[in-house]
Amino acid sequence: MRLTSRLFSSVDWLLVLSVFVLVVLGLSAQYGITLAQESAALSIFTKQLVALLVGLLAALVLALSNYRQLQSYVRSLYVFGTALLLGVLFFGVTRRGTTGWFDVGIVDLQPVEFVKLILILTLASMLSRRTHHRIGWREVIITGIPVGVYAFLVMLQPDVGSAALMIGIWVFMLLMAGMDRKVMLVSVIGAVTLMMVSWLLLFQDFQKERVLTFLEPERDPLGVGYNVHQARIAIGSGRLWGKGLGFGSQSQLQYLPEAQTDFIFAAIAEEFGFIGVLLVLGAFFLFLRRQWLLLLRVRDDFSAFLIVGIASMIGIQMAVNIGMNLGLVPVTGLPLPFVSYGGSSLVSSFMAFGILVSISMRTQHGIAVDNPLDTDSLIA
């Protein structure tokens, strides 16, 4: 029990604060959006609160557990993730052209959100055993196989955004491991070729139209380009202080589609203004900054790769989501971590947060490597 109190005393409270700010802003915006909608919309907000409680519980369990034990279950977790991605293709429900959800009654489960975290654990385990020499073709191929399997299954849904995110996480972790420059150059060429092949064989018509409209904004202003156009109006109309909670005209009058998910950033900007935007960006900066400082303190490769993987996942999703709200990148459907509506995304983000807290607490006391803990010793 004394050890547990020591660990809690070393919690990175600035990291906790960053997540708290993001969750509060997300819930506030979602509640404001539901005010002018039908009563059924309130159940969406209630589901998000339930997901928040589940996420907090998962984060607490992971924080109290020894994160290094996860390395022993990597193979089993990877097989489980593969089974989920295969199962959703055959038994999942289709929404907005993507077959990516299990309908389990009162909630929908989106497997890809949890598979992202499984992939990070898998890559961290693999790369931590191969850091005593530069990353060459052998390491790229070996680590690329699990990434390719997951990305291919996700593309079949099709969910291009999540598949690209997985590849992005892999690239960042390879760079962290010390990837050879020649290998990097050829890999970039291969990635471009793969995207061209995917465009011809795997992309659906609506996905192609998103990219084409991004390149030519006036191509379809009332169709595919409508979402981004309305998001820009919402962001600009918020000005400095915003219109107030529940008074955003674009979100309240439902001019802004997917205001609770893809375009939650625009809704926050409209209702809370530039101050709200600064809070979102500041919270994400603080979250990533604390991970960077934690990365400088850890003393083993598995911990370091876990931090890089989680930072990549959160950072890429943040950049892409905000970018598509501003019209800087094509609309991909990636949620804004801790902010967008979506139970699976929120729970997965909190699981990643719990792992970070576990690393931080154990690194603080110098026990990440020298004296691994198990769950029983924490409870005792």
Automatic annotation (TrEMBL):
GO terms for cellular component: cell division site; plasma membrane. This is Rod shape-determining protein RodA. One of its GO terms (molecular function) is lipid-linked peptidoglycan transporter activity. It is a multi-pass membrane protein. GO terms for biological process: cell division; cell wall organization; peptidoglycan biosynthetic process; regulation of cell shape. It comes from the Bacteria. InterPro entries: Cell_cycle_FtsW-rel_CS (IPR018365), FtsW/RodA (IPR001182), RodA/MrdB (IPR011923). It holds the Pfam family FTSW_RODA_SPOVE. The lineage of its organism: Bacteria, Candidatus Uhriibacteriota. The chain crosses the membrane at residues 12-33, 45-64, 76-94, 100-123, 135-154, 160-176, 183-202, 263-288, 304-326, 338-359. Keywords: Cell membrane, Cell shape, Cell wall biogenesis/degradation, Glycosyltransferase, Membrane, Peptidoglycan synthesis, Transferase, Transmembrane, Transmembrane helix. The keyword Phosphoprotein does not apply. It is found in: Membrane.
